[in-house]
Amino acid sequence: VVSVIIPTYNRRSSLERTLASLRRQTLDHHRYEVIVVDDGSSDTSREIESWKAPFSFHYIRQEKKGATAARNYGASRSRGKVLVFVDDDVVILPETLEVLAEECLRQQKSLVMGRIVGPSDLSEVAPASQDIPSLLAEGIGAENGHLHYTQCKTGLLAIRADAFFALGMLQDPTGGWPNWDDVDLGYRAHREGYEVRLASTAVGVHWDESSTNLSK
């Protein structure tokens, strides 16, 4: 089982777009669960709790503690062998979960990054995020391979659950903003002999909410 963990705060419409992309995964619906951790939203995000999904779907809520705590809380409630962290403004292409899970299970000591692109990279071909065909993934980005640990990002990141807990989960080294919890995880993993790897056909389109609404 793969556990997809999505922290969210006051991004109802963006979150729904992300969840819609999870409906279209090539991975069998019985092989993954999705856990949304609401970090104390004050908008209508709570209505997502009743969202109907073809896979196992869980909405959990915490009082505002930040994205690091939300991701860790979601992981603590998960049951998958592989954890996939996805930001609530990232739309993933259909093969993404399958590719990330296979790479994680094949590479024992690895953190696997998906390839993040912007909407402008695809707009001429598929202007609506929900219509982006999976075959576009083959033409996007770099080759699979090793990344420096400073490129570890939780926007689209997979890790074996046992490794995540053995490494001490995510930690916030700054205690505020900017939050370097993902780079810190990459550094701690690197010291333990893990690699950060890129799976170039696991693609996420980043519809950057923070650039259009600074309150989010």
Short account of what is shown:
With 216 residues, the protein is α/β, with parallel strands linked by helices.
The parts where pLDDT drops under 50 for at least 5 residues are 124-142
Count, helices: 5
| Dominant shape | globular
* Helicity range: 10-25%
Number of strands: 9
What does this structure look like?
The structure is a single chain. With 216 residues, this protein is an alpha/beta fold. 23% of the residues lie in helices and 26% in strands. The chain contains five helices and nine strands; from the N terminus they run E-H-E-E-H-E-E-H-E-E-E-H-H-E. Strands 1, 2, 3, 4, 5, 6, 7, 8 and 9 form a nine-stranded mixed β-sheet that branches. Strand 1 (2-8), helix 1 (12-23) and strand 2 (32-38) form a beta-alpha-beta unit.
